[in-house]
Amino acid sequence: MADPIYKRVIVKLSGEALSADKGFGIDQGVVERIAADLAATAKMGVELGVVVGGGNIFRGVEVSNRGVPRPVGDTMGMLATVMNCLVLEAAVERAGVEARTLSALTMTTVCETYNRKRAMKNLAKGRVVLLAAGTGNPFFTTDTTAVLRAAELDCQAVLKATNVDGVYTADPKKDPSAKRYERVSHQEALEKDLKVMDGAAFALARENRLPIIVFSMAGKGAVEAVLRGEGRSTLVG
Ligand SMILES: Nc1ncnc2c1ncn2[C@@H]1O[C@H](COP(=O)(O)OP(=O)(O)OP(=O)(O)O)[C@@H](O)[C@H]1O
Ligand SMILES: O=c1ccn([C@@H]2O[C@H](COP(=O)(O)O)[C@@H](O)[C@H]2O)c(=O)[nH]1
């Protein structure tokens, strides 16, 4: 089997990836499959930070459309990511690898607060580090969080796991004629407004020369396969 192409990465999982076909809530079978994949990847010797979205529970914009102030809606979204991290933490440990949730919002009775040195120590010990509550600030997304944490924690790449197998010329769910890129620069992704990630995330990745690999989480062992250089994906960078 091929050696992993990176030694330390951030994996970005969308919240929806935890919800199977329903788009809402947490499907325990899916969580177990993803946890097994993360544990197998950690066992290959790859240090893994995992940023999880919250779209399967709350998105700040949607909550604020119902009359809640946007910063409050965003806080609800960040709290949703904590729930997703806690369910994954338990599943990764059941799969035989130690895991720690570090939250950007302080909640001392639930999990540890994020701090760069603590995250680095946990990564170096081979623990899967679940990075919860996004950046801790409203008006951001977990895509931007993933790139920010990758830059802070000296990661070599961001692996963006989603429900499409790469970056397309347009949203492939809306435009069946969209073509997949094998490789695209950060600049082009920004200029063409390729919405698979938000512009802030692409801009931060460009400034920090961080590659982003976009791939589908649909199959078994998807993260492990990407790190072995297998399967379909798009390299941004
Ligand atoms: N040019 C494009 N190439 C590929 N995908 C695109 C493009 N434009 C829009 N998309 C859409 O972007 C989505 C990727 O977002 P993703 O599933 O990662 O959700 P998220 O908003 O990051 O997470 P959450 O579900 O937690 O809110 C895909 O569903 C895809 O349909
Ligand atoms: O730094 C952050 C990250 C996230 N949020 C809020 O959480 C939800 C869920 O995150 P997704 O990236 O959409 O999965 C997001 O809609 C924001 O409301 C945040 O405020 N700050």
TrEMBL record:
It catalyses: UMP + ATP = UDP + ADP. Homohexamer. One of its GO terms (molecular function) is ATP binding. InterPro entries: AceGlu_kinase-like_sf, Asp/Glu/Uridylate_kinase, Uridylate_kinase, Uridylate_kinase_bac. Pfam families: AA_kinase. CDD domains: AAK_UMPK-PyrH-Ec. Inhibited by UTP. It comes from Undibacter mobilis. Its EC number is 2.7.4.22. This is Uridylate kinase. Pathway: Pyrimidine metabolism; CTP biosynthesis via de novo pathway; UDP from UMP (UMPK route): step 1/1. It comes from the Bacteria. Residues 7-216 form the Aspartate/glutamate/uridylate kinase domain. Coiled coil: none annotated. NCBIfam families: pyrH_bact. Catalyzes the reversible phosphorylation of UMP to UDP. The lineage of its organism: Bacteria, Pseudomonadati, Pseudomonadota, Alphaproteobacteria, Hyphomicrobiales.
